[in-house]
From TrEMBL:
Keywords: Membrane, Transmembrane, Transmembrane helix. GO terms for molecular function: ABC-type transporter activity. This is ABC transporter permease. GO terms for cellular component: plasma membrane. The keyword Membrane applies. It comes from the Bacteria. The keyword Membrane applies. The chain crosses the membrane at residues 20-40, 60-84, 111-132, 152-170, 177-198, 248-269. Pfam families: ABC2_membrane_2. It comes from Gelidibacter gilvus.
Length: 274
């Protein structure tokens, strides 16, 4: 595994565009944490400091940081599809196979790299959230500090699942731009499925079906935290309550899609005449 990851890292680090995108994909999520130090002065009447609103308290900080950080995954998604596009355009895929790399190892090298970068991004967000939480949170008990750290697991699987989808699209069309376009097409397709089921049955059934589709299932791993923040400020508003927890079956659905995308990527490569 380490050999395959090292091989892929050498290719990426030799590419200037990839290095820039990787750097951006790791730096931008930390803008979420930088928000904690922002102070907004309202014409001298009062100063609003986001860190003092309680949104960086434990355990809610795990939910907030992972939710917003996941929106920056598109930058590394470009790296993933470029990994495939460059292999075909530069003919390195054929050379790798001639040099003794099997088609299975070729796909695994891409997948292991995805797992590596997803794990690294999760560790960085976890450490950053922990330090910000220690500074701002009024809770210091270990049981509260490490409560809901399952959001980090959800964040990791969300990245792995999304990048595996990008890997499949990259293998399918062999061009970076077209692969990213397929993400948008899939997004539209999932909403079409939603409206078809809603018309045939009801909205509740439509949402249940949509929650099993790739993009929606990945999004559902970490639900939006806005209502939760309002609930902490207005606990009497019972109508704001919603289920924001990370559920095991949501993790299983995304793991299933991840395995399928990696398998389909391998099948595409195996059946192609290079």
């Amino acid at each position: 595994m380490l050999r395959l990851v090292n091989l892929e890292l050498q290719k990426l680090l030799l590419n200037r565009a990839s290095k820039v995108l990787i750097f951006i994909s790791f730096i931008l999520p930390f803008t979420v944490l930088i928000l904690s130090s922002i102070k907004i002065n309202f014409f001298g009447f009062f100063t609003l400091e986001l860190g003092e609103l309680g949104i960086f308290n434990f355990p809610i900080i795990w939910h907030i940081t992972t939710f917003f950080a996941s929106y920056f995954k598109l930058f590394f998604a470009i790296v993933v599809v470029s990994m495939i596009g460059n292999e075909y355009s530069n003919k390195t895929i054929k050379q790798n196979l001639i040099d003794g790399l099997s088609k299975k190892e070729f796909i695994l090298s891409k997948f292991y790299t995805i797992v590596f970068f997803s794990f690294l991004a999760t560790v960085l967000i976890g450490v950053g959230s922990f330090l910000i939480g220690l500074y701002y949170s009024s809770y210091t008990e270990a049981s509260i500090i490490f409560k809901e750290t399952e959001f980090l697991l959800a964040y990791f699987l969300k990245l792995v699942g999304f990048f595996s989808l990008c890997l499949f699209f990259g293998m399918l069309v062999k061009r970076s731009a077209f692969a990213l376009a397929f993400l948008f097409i899939l997004y539209i397709f999932e909403w079409i499925v939603f409206w078809i089921v809603a018309e045939a049955s009801n909205t509740d059934m439509a949402w249940k079906v949509k929650n099993f589709l790739p993009l929606e299932s990945m999004y559902k791993l970490i639900d939006q935290p806005f209502q939760r923040v309002l609930m902490t400020k207005y606990p009497e508003k019972i109508d704001m309550a919603y289920d924001y927890a990370v559920h095991w079956y949501e993790l299983v659905i995304v793991l299933g899609w991840t395995a399928l995308f990696v398998f389909l990527s391998y099948r595409l490569l195996k059946q192609r005449d290079l």
